[in-house]
Design a protein that fits this description.
Blueprint (H helix, E strand, L loop, with lengths): L4 H7 L5 H16 L5 E3 L3 E3 L5 H12 L9 E2 L5 H4 L7 H17 L23 E2 L4 H9 L8 H10 L1 E3 L13 E5 L6 H15 L4 E5 L7 H14 L6 E2 L9 H4 L10 E3 L1 H11 L4 E2 L2 E9 L1 H11 L9 E6 L1 H9 L2 H8 L1 E5 L16 E3 L2 H9 L4 E3 L2 H10 L1 E2 L2
The protein binds FE3-S4 cluster (F3S).
The site of FE3-S4 cluster (F3S) has 14 residues, from β11 and α15.
Length: about 400
């Protein structure tokens, strides 16, 4: 791998131990993937998780004098001040969250604590090389915006942010962005929930390949629809790049999606029946619930408005907590418009800066939760809480009734 004189000096430690460690990681990654050199990036997103390993890495860099050349946006941790008033966490869990927030502040990250950077806080240009981690954010910027990011980890994205560079390999190269298999979609897409289930089906078929989706019926996905699709395709599979013919920027035509080559025959056809079978398989649970959890990925302001419409003035059942994890700007808009206070009076609470996969939610473990996100269910179930997955309208009904049926 070729390095410039300046890059070599950084690797030799002339810019401090922190920058040296970051450069060592980028060079090791580049060598692993046969990158010929490093390329500049001006945007990065770090999927900090508030877990020990990520925090250790950031501390290692910052204690070695590193500062971000490119201030990255950050994934959610959790709202320590607010949620510790409501739920029990251990001193260790609280301190780790505070340590995480502090060290990312010290390294010069933008503390956005949001997992939908491509919607507002960190939007790359078409064709721009960036370093984004977060499994729902990377497919969004690659596929919907046409920016170029590898499927970074929080570790490699932070190293890229410190150095302002990333190795030239993978999705930065034209040949790795082309479609690799074709899926025909005959199912009807009614709302973001259907896009999420479609993403889940797609990821299970595509694995780590770049799927191309061709729709039989006309569709016009929203930002939220694209987000849900990508989040779930990266949950059941490892999809970081997809094309939708006539919808995403690198797929104006079917052949363009395959790099101006002849498209292969469809490998699969996804119908309404497939979506409903996937939903049944993912979510057989029914019965009394203790939690409705929305916002994985973070809810937008428009989605919050939709909750209010479905609530229609009714109160959440007394046995149920209803939390909406939202981008900070969405939560702020909801406060300014008084939607937030109106929802709170009904028992629906909006919390910014917070991920579903954090220790603050552990008091619900053992009971049944309801969500509109298979990704949320996947992570929460690993922590001991089964989840039913339903579309938003049904999640709201479950919140009001205190139970979920079929
Ligand atoms: Fe966001 Fe956490 Fe879900 S980062 S996408 S709320 S797992």
């Amino acid at each position: 791998m070729k390095l410039s004189d300046e890059e070599r000096r950084t690797l030799d430690g002339e810019s401090g131990v922190g920058a040296q460690k970051a450069m060592e990681l980028l060079v090791a990654l580049g060598k692993t993937f046969d990158a010929e050199r490093l390329i500049g990036v001006r945007k990065a997103h770090v999927a900090l998780s508030g877990q020990e390993g990520d925090t250790y890495w950031c501390e290692l860099l910052v204690n070695g004098g590193a500062k971000c050349a490119v201030p990255p946006t950050t994934n959610p941790c959790w709202d320590v001040d607010g949620l510790t008033k409501v739920y029990d966490v251990t001193t260790y869990e609280r301190d780790l969250a505070l340590r995480t927030i502090d060290v990312y502040r010290r390294i010069g990250a933008k503390l956005t604590f949001c997992c939908t950077p491509g919607l507002g806080t960190n939007v790359p240009f078409f064709g721009e090389n960036v370093a984004f981690s977060e499994s729902s954010a990377t497919p969004y910027v690659n596929s919907v915006i046409g920016a170029r990011s590898n499927r970074e980890s929080s570790i490699s994205a932070l190293a890229a942010a410190v150095i302002g560079k990333t190795p030239l390999y993978g999705y930065h190269l034209d040949e790795n962005r082309r479609g690799e298999m074709l899926i025909d979609v005959e199912a009807e897409m009614k709302d973001s929930y259907d896009w999420g289930i479609l993403g889940y089906c797609t990821g299970a078929i595509a694995g780590a390949r770049n799927p191309v989706l061709r729709f039989k019926k006309p569709v016009r996905p929203s930002q939220e629809d694209f987000l849900y699709f990508g989040a779930e395709a990266a949950t059941s599979g490892a999809v970081a790049m997809y094309h939708m013919v006539g919808l995403t920027p690198e797929a104006p035509t079917l052949n363009a999606a395959f790099g101006n080559r002849q498209a292969p025959a469809p490998e699969s056809v996804i119908t309404d029946k497939d979506l409903s079978e996937t939903e049944q398989k993912l979510s057989a649970s029914t019965g009394p619930i203790n939690l409705v959890m929305l916002g994985c990925p973070h809810y937008t302001y428009d989605q919050i408005l939709q909750i209010e419409r479905y609530m229609n003035g009714r109160r959440v059942h007394s046995d149920v907590a209803f939390w909406v994890l939202a981008a900070a700007d969405a939560a702020e808009l909801a406060s300014r418009s008084h939607v937030r206070s109106r929802l709170e009076r009904l028992g629906v609470y909006i919390v910014p800066d917070t991920c579903i996969d954090e220790p603050c939610w552990k008091s619900f473990e053992g009971g049944l939760g309801v969500t509109d996100s298979p990704k949320c269910a996947y992570y929460r179930e690993r922590r001991g809480q089964p989840f039913a997955i339903r579309r938003l309208a049904d999640c709201v009904e479950a919140a009001v009734l205190g139970r979920i049926g079929r």
